[in-house]
Amino acid sequence: MAQQWCNRNYWNSRQAPKKNQVISQSPTTLQPSFLLEQCRTLSLSAVSLKSIPSSTRVLSSMGSLPEVSGQLVYPSVKRDDSIVEDYHGVPVADPYRWLEDVDAEAVKEFIGAQRKLCNEVLNTCSLRERFRERITDLFDYPKYDCFMRRGNKYFYFYNTGLQAQSVLYMQDGLEGEAEIFLDPNKLSDDGTVALSAYVFSENAEFIAFGLSSSGSDWINLKVMRVADKTWEPDTISWVKFSSIAWTHDNKGFFYSRYPAPMLDGSVDAGMETNINLNHKLYYHVMGTDQEDDVLCWWDMENPKWILEATVTDDGKYLVLCITEGCDPVNRLYYCDLSSLSNGISGFGRNSELLPMRKLVDNFDAQYELIANDGTSFTFLTNNNAPKYKLVRVDLENPDVWVDVIPESSSDVLQSVRCVNESQLIVCYLSDVKYVLQVRDLASGSLIKHLPLDIGSVLNMSGRREDKEIFINYASFLTPNIIYRCNLSVEDPELEVFRESIVKGFDRTAFQTTQVFVPSKDGTKIPMFIVRKKNLELNGQNPALLYGYGGFNISITPSFSVSRIVFAQHCGGVLAFANIRGGGEYGEEWHRAGSLANKQNCFDDFIACAEYLIRSGYTQSKKLSIEGASNGGLLVAACMNQRPDLFGCALAHVGVMDMLRFHKFTIGHAWTTDYGCSEKEEEFKWLIKYSPLHNVKRPWEDSAKDGVQYPSVMLLTADHDDRVVPLHSLKLLATLQHELCLNSKDNKQTNPIIGRLDSKAGHGAGRPVQKLIDEATDKYAFMAEVVNAQWVD
């Protein structure tokens, strides 16, 4: 949150680094960056479509796509009914387990057939080219990120509009002439190499970059000399979920990585599904090979632990944050670097590790380092404070912790940053609205409120030594404002420093309201609604409901060109449900939607959908739902439980197999939110809502006569090594088999398709053209199936 690897704010775009550190990724099932423009018994050996007699293919009428003539042909897919696993005495079939083998020819044929089917459907969507043209036009606006001062220069990221990746610029002074420092668009021909981390050395002589390819969580670290912008020979591979922390002698930096996966040469990095274990902390000395890096610390008895290193502002201490799952809890160890008589390079040989002292040696609460003055350390924590508080402890008296800013009774202390030597920039979340304050570091007392409109603080730059801060702000109707605040004056104010204007979009024609919807158990669920001011609430409007509900992640206002196009030209209503499981009201809100309470997330989302219908915003057949990652699970579970309530379901990179998710890449970290099928009680929770295991033909229930599943698009990508594609592939095969291919009285006329992207991952680092292509396809599909009309 230094950023935790289970960062509450990770989904918000690139986070400007603190003193000498930035987290590269967070292994939660998080919201992908596109929002910010960021499965029963199945089998038959693999057969290509051409080898299947047409008489064996079941054809489904495309009544929900009025421009389609004829019938939609679903590919026949093999099932292996012999795969049955015993879960605590309960036999569970897994007929599509063969789809877990990413390198198998049968899987490649399945993906090819599904891509062909998807393209056939998308080619019939009458508004596809209008969406593409309009999204492209509106996306072409300047995008700024926070300025940050390093040495005697300012650095910032900027995109002219349609560049694949934002470019890092450098200039003298705030009004100096800008020059390109690093253009990541020159690192690949197609824009799929992205900067995922960047940290300057203490003297600003060097900058370490993390480079990711095709959206994978794996990154390579490279180092550039700032003065002449030349690359150093240093290269570090197989880094994942790592911070970068330079020592103040500028000789090197700490980073964390896993052992390199075993790849056979036919699978790209990021396409493998091997479980990630044995995270280790290393120190790299500039000018040396990676094989000579010093192994500083790891725990062989706890292979699931994940390590994040920070060097304190005074350069004296290494602070190690240790996490095991995605709960907001961590252990906290430290090492006095000044006490190492032979320096860091004297360790790591003969299995000798850095002498770490344990300040917190349990997983009871979260501790995020904010500042230190000698042995006095200040932390943001949720220890006995579910809405978080600021505390202080002296390393020489570690049993005494003192509150600096007590927990609020109503608002969540979202983030704290130490600036201007003795001040704090404090950010609260109050009913999902940001509150920004300046406070005193020593006492925690309030100095000044910094007023903001309803929106989100996407990120912030400013270090303890800086007398100014920059804040990146956005809302549903405001794409990007960079505020500057000069803290050296007596009465600091937020001043607009840069502002993005989207040509052709009049935000005054729209309105944002917040409502509080009673859920099934009476809990009030906040929901933002964005629509045209003159829109008639007659139940005839197409609507899109978005949700997430997990991992303590708060869904706060953000600007999306593609959604604005839907609202502007299709009269669409946009709704964002802040359901339980998120962090909107602190850890209690999170807990109320996790583990045994996960059904609350689905009940909350369904209640919000019913509210939109009841209040005249829309009707079931015109209501679409969308979610990504954990939100993809949300969408799939809700369409299983209430197929009658929705007209369209868009599920991105979702966790769909709740019985096996922990076996792949970083999935084991999610058991803190979901539970694990290897434990009997938790298996009983999971089997009840696991999307893969709860697909049913609704028309076979006499009480649901005439009900079918909504139109469905599952979206995933081949280099998603966070929520691996097998989740979506297995659910796609199951849905098509159960609803479209295996019923004599088939009533599923709504299409079920998968958009399976290539050279892309979980969402982060995706080039602009891929963002536009995906938005075009999903919203053109959605508009077609809910019969939305285009108005210029």
Automatic annotation (TrEMBL):
<protein>
    <recommendedName>
        <fullName>Prolyl endopeptidase</fullName>
        <ecNumber>3.4.21.-</ecNumber>
    </recommendedName>
</protein>
<dbReference type="InterPro" id="IPR001375">
    <property type="entry name" value="Peptidase_S9_cat"/>
</dbReference>
<dbReference type="InterPro" id="IPR029058">
    <property type="entry name" value="AB_hydrolase_fold"/>
</dbReference>
<dbReference type="GO" id="GO:0004252">
    <property type="term" value="F:serine-type endopeptidase activity"/>
</dbReference>
<keyword id="KW-0645">Protease</keyword>
<dbReference type="Pfam" id="PF02897">
    <property type="entry name" value="Peptidase_S9_N"/>
</dbReference>
<feature type="domain" description="Peptidase S9A N-terminal">
    <location>
        <begin position="75"/>
        <end position="493"/>
    </location>
</feature>
<keyword id="KW-0720">Serine protease</keyword>
<dbReference type="Pfam" id="PF00326">
    <property type="entry name" value="Peptidase_S9"/>
</dbReference>
<dbReference type="GO" id="GO:0006508">
    <property type="term" value="P:proteolysis"/>
</dbReference>
<dbReference type="GO" id="GO:0070012">
    <property type="term" value="F:oligopeptidase activity"/>
</dbReference>
<keyword id="KW-0378">Hydrolase</keyword>
<dbReference type="GO" id="GO:0005829">
    <property type="term" value="C:cytosol"/>
</dbReference>
<dbReference type="InterPro" id="IPR023302">
    <property type="entry name" value="Pept_S9A_N"/>
</dbReference>
<dbReference type="InterPro" id="IPR002470">
    <property type="entry name" value="Peptidase_S9A"/>
</dbReference>
<comment type="similarity">
    <text>Belongs to the peptidase S9A family.</text>
</comment>
<feature type="domain" description="Peptidase S9 prolyl oligopeptidase catalytic">
    <location>
        <begin position="557"/>
        <end position="787"/>
    </location>
</feature>
<dbReference type="InterPro" id="IPR051167">
    <property type="entry name" value="Prolyl_oligopep/macrocyclase"/>
</dbReference>
